Write a sequence for this structure.
């Protein structure tokens, strides 16, 4: 009997083929097989014949929304920066999307990076993606040659071993705490819809850090980011980071130095996370691509928690409404403001 | 403000430590409030270094962190009371962003009280002096800033 992923792969290929063959879309963004175990390659398919390349499994950790603006541009007729927009509708692009990726497409729409009329969302309910790092940690010191996926287990094989392990135990932290696995936008449904997942406290890891003392938190921050090599893979993998010039590349003023100085690295991470405030969907792409295994997602998760508590918004969940930081309410909380009255009360 | 000079290095070894506080003041209200405090001769601690900005909404997290990196012991951002913004809503957007930043800084271990925010109008000279006193006392109680400061000589 085919596994869940084999069935999904088949369905993706059929649907992509149909969309390309009948001319609905000019390109499909999906995944094809990677060259190493537990990897897949983000791939743009432009002909019906190529659809056989597409695959779906638990290692699809990159956020495909990241490629959407560029692929949309690639299917437009070439024109100079000052040329008028061509007459008539522009070609469409189909993209595979899980819960979080579809929410990123909503954010891209809110930020006018993507024209929703030109996007066909092939919605897949996510079962949680597996962390390659977690698997490698389980098999530390042994070389993994292949990983086969069954419905609820992974079969990990090396030259002299073969072990079956439970899939969910290896699922990424962000997927384990996710409550919205089903896409918020669906034009073409792949597989079965998933219901909302119950999670009494998706922010437990954040709460644990908040519970520490200021000294302990500083110690956590400095040690967590001490191994960062400033490769910016976390930024490049993120669909929110589309700035033509990122603040890290600004030279005048230079907000952060280019060295591996711990303060510069810390500032990079604080500012990058802050730029994602109210926009981050906790897709985990940033964390998955980090070559050093840094959990920089804790910072964005903290911001997600505050945005939800202060402004009642989860990024990408309300397609029609503005982003939380591009709007305001006259009664927004302002307990943090220093007032003269407070000064009197505190007796200082 | 964006220069790489290390403000801490200016400190005289023998004199008692006095905090350096960078105050980003909106030109339409808090800056005028500071001016009024001056002409009305309300005393306030001389620890603040004022940076005049067009609106509290103009103060980006980059600017606040740059000041910390350069060795500021405290930061004060002050704008117009909600509803009084010269640009109608700049301070309202600022009010949404500021708690996120100060919470994030606390989250990574920056002591609460290093970064403060206030609303001071152009007619509130006395209030301005009071707020500067409060902020300075808080920063004094925390002692010199040691976190997120870039030490030029140690840079790799
Ligand atoms: S980190 Fe900030 S400035 Fe850099 S690309 Fe991302 S959003 Fe833009
Ligand atoms: S910051 Fe990380 S988790 Fe958030 S949207 Fe970007 S890649 Fe995804
Ligand atoms: S991907 Fe990892 S190592 Fe690279 S810049 Fe981000 S946190 Fe640092």
């Amino acid at each position: 009997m085919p596994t869940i992923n084999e069935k999904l792969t088949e369905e993706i290929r059929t649907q992509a083929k149909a969309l390309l063959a009948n001319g609905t879309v000019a390109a499909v963004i999906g995944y094809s097989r990677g060259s190493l175990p537990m990897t897949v390659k983000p791939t743009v398919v432009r002909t019906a014949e190529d659809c056989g390349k597409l695959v779906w499994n638990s290692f699809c950790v990159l956020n495909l929304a990241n490629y959407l603006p560029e692929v949309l541009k690639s299917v437009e007729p070439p024109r100079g920066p000052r040329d008028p927009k061509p007459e008539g509708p522009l070609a469409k692009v189909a993209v595979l999307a899980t819960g979080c990726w579809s929410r990123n497409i909503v954010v891209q729409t809110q930020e006018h990076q993507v024209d929703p009329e030109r996007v066909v969302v092939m919605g897949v309910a996510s079962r949680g993606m597996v962390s390659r790092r977690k698997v490698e940690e389980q098999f530390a010191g042994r070389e993994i040659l292949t990983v086969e996926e069954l419905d609820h287990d992974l079969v990990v094989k090396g030259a002299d071993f073969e072990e079956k392990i439970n899939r969910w135990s290896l699922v990424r932290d962000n997927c384990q705490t996710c409550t919205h696995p089903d896409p918020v936008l669906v034009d073409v449904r792949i597989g079965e819809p998933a219901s909302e997942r119950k999670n009494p406290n998706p922010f437990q890891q954040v709460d644990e850090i908040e519970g520490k003392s200021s000294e302990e938190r500083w110690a956590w921050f400095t040690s967590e980011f001490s191994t960062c090599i400033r490769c910016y893979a976390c930024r490049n993998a993120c669909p929110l980071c589309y700035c033509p010039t990122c603040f890290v590349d600004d030279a005048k003023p230079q907000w952060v130095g280019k060295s591996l100085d711990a303060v510069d690295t810390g500032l990079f991470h604080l500012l990058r996370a802050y730029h994602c405030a109210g926009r981050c969907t906790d897709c985990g792409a940033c964390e998955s691509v980090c070559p050093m295994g840094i959990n920089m997602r804790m910072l964005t998760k903290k911001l997600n928690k505050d945005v939800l508590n202060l402004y009642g918004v989860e990024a990408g969940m309300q397609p029609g409404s503005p982003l939380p930081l591009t709007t305001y309410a006259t009664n927004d909380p302002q307990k943090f403001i220093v007032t003269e009255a407070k000064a009197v009360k505190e007796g200082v | 403000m964006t220069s790489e000079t290390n403000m801490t290095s200016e400190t005289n070894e023998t004199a008692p430590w006095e905090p350096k506080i960078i105050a980003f003041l909106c030109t339409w209200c808090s800056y005028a409030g500071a001016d009024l405090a001056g002409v009305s001769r309300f005393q306030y601690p001389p620890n603040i270094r004022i940076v005049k900005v067009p609106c509290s909404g103009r103060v980006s997290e980059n600017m606040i962190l740059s000041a910390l990196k350069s060795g500021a012991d405290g930061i004060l951002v002050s704008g117009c009371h909600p509803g009084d913004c010269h640009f109608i809503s700049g301070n309202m957007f600022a009010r949404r962003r500021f708690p996120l930043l100060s919470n994030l800084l606390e989250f990574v271990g920056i002591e609460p009280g290093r970064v403060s925010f206030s609303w001071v109008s152009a007619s509130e000279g006395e209030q301005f002096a009071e707020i500067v006193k409060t902020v300075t006392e808080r920063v004094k109680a925390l002692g010199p800033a040691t976190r997120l400061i870039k030490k030029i000589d140690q840079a790799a």
Observations:
- Chain A is about 30% helix and 10% strand.
- The two ends of chain A are 74 Å apart (CA to CA).
- Residues 4-126+183-190 of chain A form one domain.
